[in-house]
């Protein structure tokens, strides 16, 4: 009987240790270089297991859930509440996965219709300072690094057994509780944490193309310069027809039939340029 109790306890401990821990960060951003007074704030998740961690937008997983329910219900895109989706727009379109076993970091982001994935090729070289303080319930220590054209200050805690952090940050002797750049353009602040059963599945519409970081940046610039040509030429592998059938069933501006390619090109270019303007102060400047 005693032996059975020990086995049960061991299985319980194994199950608990195998669980995924979710850390919720508040991300504060000033994405528009010409309008630093406009501050965007949203939550992002850092899900950590012994094998890997994934950082992504809370709004993204909520949007994915709405779309999944719509398609499972047979309604398709036409049954999706557009206002609800609009309220869940995100400035964090990317996801970052860290492979704990191989010590690799992978960045994924959508350009046009495809997902581009690259392995981060720049190491984080931290300078750990002696300065400590308290943030919330955690005793934290200061560290600094230069990354992506910005100087970053991080505060990490050894109270939590994870050498990880939001975005691409990690590699310190504890979990990063707060990290911000010296211009005050970007800040990641730990708000809370809890356990989840497993990693959620992030919808990956389109092809996933594995590229080098330099190639990703080139493709991103091509898309911003001429989005229609980018997609009609494939932008890697994906294809885009210049004559598009507008889906019937409730989309704004949809009425069925073929949409004029010239009008569609103009609208898309205007939309992409407007988005580029709103995101002219990216988290990585180089």
Automatic annotation (TrEMBL):
<feature type="compositionally biased region" description="Gly residues">
    <location>
        <begin position="246"/>
        <end position="258"/>
    </location>
</feature>
<feature type="compositionally biased region" description="Basic and acidic residues">
    <location>
        <begin position="263"/>
        <end position="278"/>
    </location>
</feature>
<protein>
    <submittedName>
        <fullName>GLPGLI family protein</fullName>
    </submittedName>
</protein>
<feature type="region of interest" description="Disordered">
    <location>
        <begin position="227"/>
        <end position="286"/>
    </location>
</feature>
<feature type="signal peptide">
    <location>
        <begin position="1"/>
        <end position="18"/>
    </location>
</feature>
<dbReference type="InterPro" id="IPR005901">
    <property type="entry name" value="GLPGLI"/>
</dbReference>
<keyword id="KW-0732">Signal</keyword>
<dbReference type="Pfam" id="PF09697">
    <property type="entry name" value="Porph_ging"/>
</dbReference>
């Amino acid at each position: 009987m005693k032996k059975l109790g020990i086995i049960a306890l061991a299985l319980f401990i194994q199950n608990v240790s195998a669980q995924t821990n979710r850390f919720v960060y508040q991300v504060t951003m000033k994405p528009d270089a010409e309008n630093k007074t406009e501050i965007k704030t949203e939550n992002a998740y850092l899900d950590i297991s012994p094998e890997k961690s994934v950082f992504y937008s809370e709004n993204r997983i909520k949007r994915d859930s709405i779309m999944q329910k719509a398609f499972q219900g047979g309604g398709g895109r036409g049954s999706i509440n557009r206002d609800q989706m609009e309220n869940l727009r995100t400035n964090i379109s990317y996801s970052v996965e860290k492979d704990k076993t191989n010590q690799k970091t992978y960045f994924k982001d959508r350009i046009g219709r495809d997902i581009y994935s690259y392995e981060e090729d720049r190491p984080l070289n931290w300078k750990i300072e002696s300065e400590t303080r308290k943030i919330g319930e955690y005793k934290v220590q200061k560290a600094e690094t230069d990354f992506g054209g910005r100087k970053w200050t991080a505060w990490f805690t050894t109270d939590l057994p994870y050498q990880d952090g939001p975005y691409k940050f990690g590699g310190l002797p504890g979990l990063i509780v707060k990290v911000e750049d010296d211009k005050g353009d970007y800040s990641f602040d730990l708000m809370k944490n809890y356990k989840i059963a497993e990693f959620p599945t992030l919808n990956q519409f389109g092809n996933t193309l594995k590229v080098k970081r330099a190639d990703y940046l080139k493709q991103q610039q091509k898309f911003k310069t001429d989005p229609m040509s980018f997609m009609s030429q494939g932008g890697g592998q994906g294809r885009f027809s210049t004559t598009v059938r507008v889906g019937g069933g409730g989309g704004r501006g949809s009425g069925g039939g073929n949409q004029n390619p010239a009008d569609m090109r103009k609208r898309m270019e205007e939309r992409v340029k407007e988005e580029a303007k709103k995101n002219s102060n990216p988290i990585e400047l180089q």
